[in-house]
UniProtKB/TrEMBL annotation:
Organism from which the protein derives: Thermus arciformis
Superkingdom per UniProt: Bacteria
Molecular functions per Gene Ontology: methyltransferase activity; RNA binding
Protein known as: SAM-dependent methyltransferase
Signal peptide: none
Amino acid sequence: MLRVVVKPGKGRKVRNFYPNLYRDELQEAPEEAGVAEAWAAEGDFLAVGYYDPRSRVPFRAYRFDRGPLNRAFFRERFARALRKREGLGSAHRLVHGEADGLPGLVVDRFGEVLVLQVRTRGMEALREVWLPALLEVVAPKGVYERSDLEARRQEGLPERVGVVYGEVPEVLEVEEDGLLFPIPLSLAQKTGFYLDQRENRRLFEAMVRPGERVLDVYSYVGAFALRAARKGAYALAVDKDLEALAVLDRAALRAGLRVDIRHGEALSVLKGLEGAFHHVLLDPPTLVKRPEELPPMKRHLVDLTREALRLLAPEGYLWLSSCSYYLKAEDLLEVARRAAADRGMRLRVHALTHQPGDHPWSLHIPESLYLKTLILQEDAL
């Protein structure tokens, strides 16, 4: 097993279960990649992980006790993840990377099919060890891979998309609270369905009233819009992904519901709309992937929010989401305040929510908290 030595004082975060060690934190490191033990400069053991000098994070810890990264280790990790998701239904996130002690691996479960992403060099190198363990523990009928995201390209890894095990249908039937979504696996976003908004969708449906008007911007396959229609509200879904809107159309037809659809860029569509909506939802994709992108993206969010507030009915609700770690809850609040000031509106914070439990938030890994949703209500005096 390889050995890396951490500079004096830099091992403290690893002792507190933070898995990442960066290049400037290493005092000694081998030239080759492989499974490695991390040791403090003071001489005490820290963790076992994978070291790769070509990775943007050279060392990622998998365990904080001594032992191998073998099939038995991964079987235990997957079995633990499975136990933590008991009772969540047929569609949920089974593995959430570092927060589940599996850095660089994301696995979503859709019934008997798994859809996974491999994001790091270490997890890619260990594929022949962890994949058999995953199959053994979960026993899926099929596994599909969607490793075509930017994080993988930053690691210098090629894209991998396609069936990696068993039989996988071209279209997944995703069920959520009685709604069925026919999701083509070729759909370009994520692993097919945004499971992390499940609890927000339930809260939203509980708040919508018959006869209200709902505007679902960045609707994707319309999981919010369809819930609004099911409650007897008028729903308008906006997205630039025609294939996702086609899924929404098919799901609405199957459910006997009506959702109006508008194709186009969010800001342009918002500027062209008139009328008042009792709920306006803004759930953009990951706008901020690096810290330096934060200022311009906040300005863009202010522009979006200002237009959304223009369309908000008296005492209506604005739902503003961010799925970027770098865009904090404080940033969302600032965006809302700036947009409200531009519109001369007074708002009340109804709630601030985060991702559900199957996307765990580890106290020791700040990056594991990524989804924030700010729910604001128009509150004129």
